[in-house]
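Posting for a labmate who doesn't have an account.
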Amino acid sequence: MADLEAEKARAAKRAVEEVRDGMLIGLGTGSTAAYAIRELGARVKAGLKIDVVATSTAADKLAREAGLAPLDFGGVARVDITIDGADRINPNLEAIKGGGGALLREKIVGAASDRLIIIVDSSKPVELLGGFPLPLEVLPFAHAWVTRAITDIGAKVRLRRQGNGEPFLTDQGNLILDVDLGEIEAPVALANQLDLIPGIIEHGLFVSEIDCAIIGRGDQVDIVYKSDCRGKS
C-alpha cells in the first residue's frame, strides 16, 4: 500500500526546489500544500530570501508557525510561483480543487501566478475528473436558487457543514455546495456552464490555470507539464 503522506512530502520537496531568492510565492491550502509551507519555512531559516502570500487564513496561520510572514494579497498583482494541492487531476492538468474550502482565493492567486505548480500523491491523478465532489462557493442569498439550478442539470447537491452541524463558511463568509456530477467528461464546457449561473461566486474546476503537476509515486516523483512549466507568457 502506498504511503500517501510520504508521497505528498516528496512532491512538495521537489516543488520547493523551483523556488529561488527574491521570488514571491503563493501558498496553497490543504494537507499537501502544508508540506510545501513547512519545507519553505525550513529553507527560509537556512537563508532563503522570499516573500509569500497565503490562499486562506489556515495557510496564513501555518505559514506564520513555519517562520514565514505572508503579505496581504490585496496589494499584490503578480506572483512568481504558487504551490498548491488538488483533490483530483487529469492528464490535461484540469483539476478539482476546493476540498479545503479555499477555491476562490486559490483560483485568484493561481491566476496571478507566472507558474501554478500542483503537488499531489498517487491517489489524486485520474483519467476523468470525478470521484470527488465538485465544490461551489455560493453567495448565501442565492443558496436555494443555485441548489435548484444545479439539481436541474442532473447533479446531487449537498451543503457543506462543520462538525457541529452548522454550515461551513469560507473566508469570504460564503457557503460551499458539494456537487456530485459523476464523471466529468468535458471540464471546460462544465466550467463555462457554471460560470453562467448567478450566485455561484466560484467553482472548483481549474481548467486553464495549472502549469505543471508534481506527483509523488512511491519513492519517485513524476512531473507532468503543460507547455514547459515556465509560465503563462
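Reply:
Got it, the C-alpha cells are right above this. Residues 4-126+207-225 form a domain with the Rossmann fold fold (CATH 3.40.50.1360).
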